[in-house]
Amino acid sequence: MTQEQYILAAQPNPLHHRAASVCGAQVYPAVGIYGWRKRCLYFFILLLLVTMIVNLALTIWILKVMNFTPVRPECA
Question: What pLDDT score was predicted for residue 33?
Fold first, then answer.
């Protein structure tokens, strides 16, 4: 094997990856959120959750204070 053939054989072959995915052995790249992005995402989800809980609590409180009832008052 010459040096050029060795260099070509050592390089990754994109056709090999396509053939592997066709045969069922799929190669997946590493996907994920790491570091400060993950922390910000968790903070944003927590903030949305707290906002939803406060909104629901205030809605229930307003309904109780304003004495809203599902029963219609009788007209005299």
Answer: 83
